[in-house]
Amino acid sequence: MASGGSGKSTSEASIPSGSAVQRKKLISVCDLCKIKMQLVADLLLLSSESRPVITESLSVFGESFEKCRDTIIARTKGLDILTHDVQSQLNMGRFAEVGDILVEMGDLVVSLTECSAHAAYLAAVETPGAQPASPGLVDRYKVTRCKHEVEHGCGILKTTPLGDMSPQLLLEVSQNMSKNLKFLTDACVLASEKSKDRFAKEQFKLSVKCMSTSASALLACVREVKTSPSELTRNRCVLFSGPLVQSVCALVGFATEPQFLGKAATINPEGKAVQTAILGGAMSVVSACVLLTQCLRDIAQHSESSSKMTEYRERLRNSACAVSDGCNLLSQALRERSSPRTLPPVNSNSVN
Q1: 352 falls in which pLDDT band (50, 70, 90)?
Q2: Which residues contact 264 (CB under 8 A, 6 or more apart)?
Q3: For residue 266, which phi and psi values (nearest 5 degrees)?
Q4: Apex 154 CA angle, 45 and 259, nearest 5
Q5: Residue 33, by phi and psi: left (phi above 0), alpha (psi -120 to 50) or beta?
Q6: Angle at 22 between CA 113 and CA 312, to 5 degrees
Q7: Is residue 286's pLDDT more than 50?
Q8: Are the beta carbons of 210 and 202 closer than 8 angstroms?
């Protein structure tokens, strides 16, 4: 046995420390996944209105609650596997792999949340006397997600040190930003064409013009810092990020005014109870995944010799168990269309 000079217990030394770079990247991944899961939950699970979720991946379900239900239950099993995998990789000190699995888990939680919200809507409108929702000029969920993606991209440009602004990072940021700006442009151009209100028609066009001009100015700065990296060119990205975020927020704020969103479904108390049961089950899953992500962040942020590491690992195990419990609650709520116990995990009354 080695002499006691390391200052680490056997349990603390059981996980390799991992490189500082990998830990730093994992912290960033944790923050992104947490924000994304919370945003989708806020938009779809905590909304007081009952509307369908219209995404490309959900279009295959049509109006079939059964197809939606079966897909969600299958995805909860996939989520169980990922939570096990992420702990296994962490135990081997593979922080890069933990980050990769966490990204996959975050995407799966978003997809599962979208499916659950849509299933809750379908189940609710199947009850007697329910009136389905009617679409509006704008899909609030989609444009708000786009706004978040643009804000996140601008946030990366503002906070990333020059030395970390690799060509690959700048390419990913600009491509993701361009994709979301294009969606916002297309959505607002279509809304302008369909609107019967003279002011709205013109304001949608002006909002797009304002956003496009700000985007062109920022993306030119991104290209410049890529070809000629310096603190000066990086600072230009910071300067021109602000106007783009402001113009996107203004556009989405206008586009999501109530008169552009159509009409939510009208459902009776029975339908509301079914919807609440399914949404509650989904919230249990999201809350547990947010807690698990926070635990991973705490572990990545502290050294293995930290006095709190044992506590963090215990919290991680408890969070993983809560994810499994939440998946079971959601599956049961979908099968029975009622609430067995749709409470969030302990100490998590909200995803925020």
Answers
A1: very low
A2: 49, 50, 51, 133
A3: -105, 120
A4: 45
A5: alpha
A6: 65
A7: yes
A8: no
- Please, which residues have CB within 8 angstroms of residue 151's CB and are 6 or more apart in sequence? 245, 248, 249
> Please, where are the H alpha helices in 92-197?
95-125, 140-159, 167-194
The rounded distance, in Å, linking the Cα atoms of 41 and 156 is 23
- Segment 150-176 shows an average pLDDT of 93
d(CA 108, CA 145) in angstroms, rounded, equals 16
DSSP summary character for residue 162 = G
Beta partners for residue 131, in sequence order: 266
Q: Which of 331, 278, 341 is nearest to 116 (CA)?
A: 278
349: pLDDT confidence band, cut at 50, 70 and 90?
very low
How many whole angstroms separate alpha carbon 251 and alpha carbon 267? Answer: 31
DSSP 237-298: HHHHHHHHHHHHHHHHHHHTSGGGS-BPPB--HHHHHHHHHHHHHHHHHHHHHHHHHHHHHH
Tokens found for residue 239: 């300067």
Q: By the 8 A CB rule, do 92 and 243 touch?
A: no
Structure-token pair, residue 296: 């991973």
pLDDT at 9: 39
Question: What number is the average pLDDT over the span 174-194?
Answer: 96
187 Cβ contact partners less than 8 Å away, ≥ 6 residues apart:
138, 139, 142, 143, 255
- CA-wise closest residue to 109 among 31, 27, 37, 46: 37
Q: What letter does residue 164 receive in the DSSP assignment?
A: G
| Cβ contacts of 295 within 8 Å, gap of 6 or more | 312, 315, 316, 319
Other beta carbons within 10 Å of 333:
29
Report how far residue 295's alpha carbon sits from residue 289's, in angstroms, rounded to the nearest whole number.
10
- Residues sharing a CB contact under 8 Å with residue 75, sequence separation 6 or more, in sequence order: 108, 111, 112, 115
| 249, pLDDT greater than 50 | yes
Q: Which amino acid is at 181?
A: L
